[in-house]
Amino acid sequence: MAPRIAIIGAGAVGGYIGAQLAAAGEDVTLVDGWAAHVAAVRAYGFRVDGMAPEETAAIPVTMLHESEIGRLGEGPAIDLTFIAVKSYATRHAAERIRPFLAPGALVVSAQNGINEDVIGEVVGHGRVAGLIAARIGVELDGPGHVQRMVPRGSPGIDVFRVGEPDGRLTERIEALGALLRKVDSVKVTTNLAGERWSKLAANAMRNGVSAASGLSINALDRDPALRRFGIKVAGEAIRVGERLGFALESIGPVPATLYARADEGDGAALAKVEEALLAAALATKARSDAQRPSMGQDVAKGRPTEVEEIYGLVIARAREVGVAVPANEHVRAVVREIEAGRAKPHPALLLSFASRGTDQPAHAV
Ligand SMILES: NC(=O)C1=CN([C@@H]2O[C@H](COP(=O)(O)OP(=O)(O)OC[C@H]3O[C@@H](n4cnc5c(N)ncnc54)[C@H](OP(=O)(O)O)[C@@H]3O)[C@@H](O)[C@H]2O)C=CC1
Ligand SMILES: CC(C)(CO)C(=O)C(=O)O
């Protein structure tokens, strides 16, 4: 029988995945806290636009406001849930869905940050899996509307990576992978921990750097100083991941460990990383010039960010293993100032650090 699917947090990621699964005939109910968004989806369907005209659709899908979540209990128990709220709202989302779960339900973190443990504390560790969205590039740019900024089916990249927290290849994780192939390309991974940390480093390179500068991903990568600053941020985070013992994956087409070597002064590694970033930034058919990471979107909308769930996590784990992460600390401080209304996004907020920081070797604390 087809699984009954609930998506808690139907913003850009949750809404996009849920709408595409509904379009593929799956039994999906979206749950979201933004009343105007729920009203728009009920009235007009979930509107999706992509980089090509054939990606435009208005998809009918069942949607509840979070105050109506009790209505999930009117049907059979939920077999599969995607949690796609911002990471700071994870525990609350898991608590809200728990009463409606079937005994063998799977609860999937479709987020950035690392949230499988928190979800497991609420619903049981045996019911949790992880989903990393690596090249989805979506933005909820108004009620009922998601814009995707990269083409559906990015060639050469697995858009989704799904895995069990303990890395086992189970039937349920293969089934999750098969389901998500209705949305985009999928890799079923035995290395969720390594994928998670590599994605955290990619988010550190992108999310706060865009939020602090006000620039899109392509604009950042076309600017030599900001590009190198981003590489430094990622390199620090990757060094922490190495010290923690993760088997790191790639960031885009480049092995993640090259970012750490680049930050340590290895010229060949830096050249490879820069070449890949610049090629992607100039290939405008592969990514819209307007694509901002989710934290850049949050700051533009005046919404709270995941600064603690990304930079706070890198910094906390860096302290455990004695790795210096000054660029990550700088980005966290700037984003906090912006969130508090004491600064406005501007590249100068990062370039002040970049001009004194990029050529310095990495030191242990
Ligand atoms: N966007 C992307 O391309 C990617 C995002 N991710 C991750 O996915 C997770 C979800 O992020 P994402 O989908 O981008 O988040 P969104 O901001 O699009 O949606 C999250 C929630 O925020 C609320 N919300 C969003 N915009 C508004 C608004 N203008 N007014 C009122 N409420 C609003 C909604 O519910 P509520 O009011 O209940 O909060 C929504 O469910 C995060 O962990 C993120 O890091 C991962 C990969 C890519
Ligand atoms: C687009 C991407 C990959 C940037 O790091 C992302 O994960 C986000 O927007 O949060």
From TrEMBL:
NCBIfam families: apbA_panE (TIGR00745). Pathway: Cofactor biosynthesis; (R)-pantothenate biosynthesis; (R)-pantoate from 3-methyl-2-oxobutanoate: step 2/2. This is 2-dehydropantoate 2-reductase. Keywords: NADP, Oxidoreductase, Pantothenate biosynthesis. It is an enzyme of class 1 (oxidoreductase). It holds the Pfam family ApbA. GO terms for biological process: pantothenate biosynthetic process. InterPro entries: 6-PGluconate_DH-like_C_sf, 6PGD_dom2, ApbA, Ketopantoate_reductase, KPA_reductase, KPR_N, NAD(P)-bd_dom_sf. Residues 191-339 form the Ketopantoate reductase C-terminal domain. Belongs to the ketopantoate reductase family. The lineage of its organism: Bacteria, Pseudomonadati, Pseudomonadota, Alphaproteobacteria, Hyphomicrobiales. Transmembrane segments: none annotated. Its EC number is 1.1.1.169. The keyword Ligase does not apply. Residues 5-149 form the Ketopantoate reductase N-terminal domain. It comes from Ancylobacter tetraedralis. One of its GO terms (molecular function) is 2-dehydropantoate 2-reductase activity.
